[in-house]
Amino acid sequence: MRPSARSLPPLLLVLFVALPSLSGCEMVRKKLACNWTDTITQAEPGTPEWPVQQIIMGAMNPNEEAGWEQYRGAMHSSEIESRGAETMLRQLNYPKTRRLVPLYLADDTVPVFEVCYEETLADGVLNVFVKNEKSETPTPCRLKRDPKANGAWRAYLCSL
Q1: Which of 21, 27, 102, 157 is the right S-S partner for 142, CB 3.0 to 4.6 Å?
Q2: 75: which DSSP letter?
Q3: Taking a C-beta distance cutoff of 8 angstroms, is the pair 159, 55 a contact?
């Protein structure tokens, strides 16, 4: 039996509603799962992965002060230009990252990490999602180019 002309509009409506929701499910699945990864062993300066690896290396450094300087160097100038913002990074974010850094590493002795995916947002902002061994959801690190660092990628709003 062929669909009548009257049944086509409801059928089209169902298709128009169902198809976008299927792509939405795919997007949610992508954000929740980390099935495919790109292993970063040695990030090249100038790449978005470089500040992420610098944060990890700073957090791994047994010398807390030297590690802080490396961590700080990967941060966007907007994150450290005010004394209050830098103090918060130093006293809250950096110790948290030092404590949690093993979650982002396959081997706790080397700064090799896995990127699940990257997402470009408005204004050239880039989210790099790092595999987290304790969660199915990868951990985001938001990056943007820093005019005070010759346009290099730097981290801000990084959850590592």
Answers
A1: 157
A2: B
A3: no
